[in-house]
Amino acid sequence: MNYRIIDKENYYRKDVFRHFSEDCKCSVSMTARLDVTELAAYSKRTNTKFYLNFLYILSKVLNSRDDYKMGYLWQTNELICYDVIHPTQYVFHEDTETCTPVYTEYCEDYKVFYANALRDLEKAKNTREYLLEPESHPNWFDASFISWLSYDSLNIELPDGYLFFAPIVNWGKYREENGALVMPVSVRLNHAIADGYLIANVFRLLQQAIAEFVRE
Known about the structure:
The chain is of the alpha+beta class and about 220 residues long. It is built from 5 helices and 10 strands, in the order βαβααββββαββββα. Strands 2, 5, 6, 7, 8, 9 and 10 form a 7-stranded mixed β-sheet that branches. It has a 3-stranded antiparallel β-sheet with strand order 1-4-3, with no helix packed on it. Strand 5 (about 85-95) and strand 6 form a beta hairpin.
């Protein structure tokens, strides 16, 4: 795990960061629908899992900009930026109706990432423990697929004043609308390090990344 310390006096969001980390501690979440028509077709054509393909695209997008890789060291009151962040995915156990967190390291090489993510999922199916380990996985973001519903809105609540900077991303079932397959995606970020533009930008980057992915 490598990171660099951000000089808060020269941070380009200095005033916004101070306000939303001191005066008005809060987070921002948005839900929007992505067109995943081509990604669904690609997954079917290549006999790969749509869910893991999207997880790779999401991880690539969040690693493409420093604003999505921020962290906070409360012990020293330091703002940091990780070199890379990894997805915490989940496996659902039908028999117990519970989930197990799955730590999968991000790799820019799609084939390597896909194989590792699939391996991690299969391994997690053999346990029923909820083993979240934030202390040993500080540069991991939450990526959760809500497979039972194509929802319209979702909000993640964290304790007031808690400076948690890792992205939290959820997505649901895709559904057909006007001849296209659209999928709800929700993105939550702390307001100290992201505003409406930066969160909306995640959706724009995801749509672009999907188009690039299916052409490769």
